[in-house]
Amino acid sequence: MALSSAIEPLSYLNRKCRIILTSDSQYLVQGINEWRHGWKRSGWKRKAGKILNLDLWKQLDVLVEQHEVFARWVRGHDGHPENEYVDFLATAAAADQSTSEGLINSRFIEWLSEQREKGKFLDYMEFQRPENRFGA
Fold first, then answer.
1. Domains and CATH numbers, the chain
2. Is CB count within 10 Å lower at the N or C end of the chain?
3. What are phi and psi of 89, to 5 degrees?
4. pLDDT of 123
5. What's the pTM value of the predicted model, to 2 decimals?
């Protein structure tokens, strides 16, 4: 599930982007930032046995290489606003039995504003949008 959740949005990007991918999956974060480099050097093999979800890792690797991607880990269900928002979206989608119709505005900023009005996440600092080094 974590691999698919990274593959899906990256597959919609049609130009090079700088991406900070936030996840509560150490498997995904370490795989993107560390493991995949060694796996590729060794012909997509590990000394400890086969690479689980190899087809998804290869697909994700192709997408990550097209962009400037840094994955960062946050503890799940620990009050991190981005993680809480994703849980909110997943719960709503499951309740509605809805599926993605493609890339849409996440409304995170609006959701965060609503949460702050309730006194939550007041100390959360948003990332400033970096200057666009890759063109419009």
1. 2-73 (3.30.420.10)
2. C
3. -65, -45
4. 72
5. 0.69
